[in-house]
Design goal:
5 strands, 7 helices, about 40% helix, Rossmann fold, about 200 residues, five-stranded parallel beta sheet, alpha/beta
């Protein structure tokens, strides 16, 4: 069985379309846009006939910046930085994936996510090795780690009508149009020649 960490954003939806995992796992960790992300992932998974599961562990008190609705940490490299976020999410989703019997857990990390330490190839390699060492049966993969968002959408072949479910806003359940997530969303659709509005 193969699983994917489903954020409900463009990247995880595109990877899900491309790789067709058996199950998508959404984690509500206390992020401001949790409900919209859940709804987006559920709708996209329904369109792909992929099982959609969700877990909730409120870590909002530990967050920083846009996603937590809190002042950014003094060491934050970008406004949406949340300390150890991908490590947290992969660990929580991995715990659930093990329970389901999954052997691999995919994440929608891109080449352009390298400004976050946990979006780099070396992080994926190390977290995969750590999880495999600890439990012996689960590895982590990032199929799009060498692609940018436009290349991923193009490579995956995800239809516009499925990708339209994606929620990319970092600040809430309604797209603000101004955060880095919204801007990336609009720029990707524009680069693809799709109407972003």
């Amino acid at each position: 069985m193969r699983a994917i960490l489903m954020s409900g954003g463009m990247d995880s939806i595109s990877v899900a379309w491309w790789r067709r995992p058996d199950v998508a796992i959404f984690v509500d960790y206390g992020q401001r846009a949790a409900q919209a992300e859940f709804d987006a992932g559920a709708a996209a998974c329904a369109a792909m006939d992929i099982e959609h599961q969700a877990i909730k562990v409120d870590c909002s008190a530990l967050g920083s910046g846009d996603m937590a609705g809190a002042p950014a940490s003094s060491i934050a490299p970008v406004p949406e930085w949340w300390p150890f976020r991908n490590q947290l999410l992969l660990t929580l989703a991995g715990m659930f994936a093990i329970k389901l019997g999954a052997k691999s857990l995919a994440i929608g990390a891109l080449r352009t996510d390298g400004e976050h330490a946990d979006g780099r190839p070396e992080f994926i390699e190390r977290i995969s090795g750590l999880m495999a060492m600890q439990e012996g049966t689960l590895t982590v993969e990032a199929p799009a780690i060498e692609l940018d968002a436009v290349e991923l959408v193009t490579t995956s072949g995800v239809p516009r009508e499925v990708l339209a479910w994606a929620h990319s806003c970092h600040t809430g359940n309604l797209a603000c149009g101004q955060c880095r997530g919204c801007i990336k969303h609009y720029k990707t659709w524009e680069a693809l020649g799709w109407d972003a509005h």
